[in-house]
Amino acid sequence: MTAVQVRPVQAVQSAPVTDRPIVEVSDLIKVYRHGRTETIALRGVDLSIAPGEFVAIQGRSGSGKSTLLNLLSGSDRPTAGRVTIDGIALEQADETQRAQLRGRVVGIVFQSQNLADLLSLEENVALSARLAGRDSGHAAVRARLAEVGLEERATHHPSHLSGGEQQRGGVACVLAALPKLLLGDEITGELDTATAVRLLDLVREVHAKTALTVVLVTHDPLVAERADRVIELRDGRVVSDRRTSWTPS
Ligand code: ADP
Predict the structure, then answer these.
(1) Of 1, 146, 173, 237, which has the most beta carbons under 10 Å away?
(2) Which of 32, 40, 76, 220 is the best mutation target for the ligand 1 pocket, counting ligand atoms within 8 Å of the beta carbon and taking the most?
(3) Which residues pair with 58 in a beta bridge?
């Protein structure tokens, strides 16, 4: 296996660190209704995440993790309760504020299909930067790809990349958009252990060098091991919330 060359992540300050939580959730309830069938996915979740925290949200399948992430990203609406992201109360946000939130404040990395296959890797990164109003020039795009060790894959289309490379490409897109908050849904889900560890080390490195807040939803213990705070959901409720003392090996 060839070693991945990862260039040091540029020290960028995406946001001044303030005392105001970047994520505030209170009494969040989500009920899915299909005809007469009701599923209560979240049963009153309270959560506060400070800028710069690295948080893993754990729980078994069906515990409500993805539902919570969708509500934090503003891509779904709660049945009741409040979500405030970087001071924007989502239930009151108009379309402009929601778009601003998705474009500049929140970056999302999914398990897969993060990248558009019609575009090359560098075009994906440039698009992500442009949508967020960031530098989408050739040099900036190449720098982001170098940071994730994918400079030589710049002109490849995502379907010609391995799962690990696609995930790193997703991280490059987030880096290019320079958000304050990175939300990840099972980002190591389809990766072998070595590749997952490399991806998580990269996310940790970005986190250490920027003001980025990281919230990763996962059932992968590798992720929780690397977080500074682990929140556990069970049946739509927070059942534990603990600080950890992870140090790089
Ligand atoms: P997790 O991410 O922890 O696996 P989810 O948030 O996906 O949990 O799901 C929580 C509960 O909500 C589960 O019982 C799931 O079946 C249900 N659920 C999730 N999405 C939907 C949906 N779109 N429609 C109906 N039920 C859903």
Answers:
(1) 173
(2) 32
(3) 218, 232
Nearest CA to ligand 1 atom 7: 66
By CB atoms closer than 10 A (0-12, 13-18, 19+), residue 202 is buried
| 185: Cβ contacts below 8 Å, ≥ 6 apart | 65, 66, 69, 108, 109, 110, 111, 217
Q: Which residues of the chain have pLDDT under 70?
A: 1-18, 111-113, 246-249
Render 42-82 in DSSP notation, one character per residue: EEEEEEEE-TT-EEEEE--TTSSHHHHHHHHTTSS--SEEE
Check pocket membership of 166 for ligand 1, CB cut-off 6 A. Answer: no
Q: What is the reported pTM?
A: 0.86
Q: Mind listing the pLDDT tens digit for each residue in 1-37?
A: 444 455 555 544 444 445 799 999 999 999 999 999 9
Closest residue by Cα to atom 6, ligand 1, is 64
Tally the C-alpha atoms within 13 A of residue 86's C-alpha that lie toward its C-beta.
22
**pLDDT for position 249:** 54
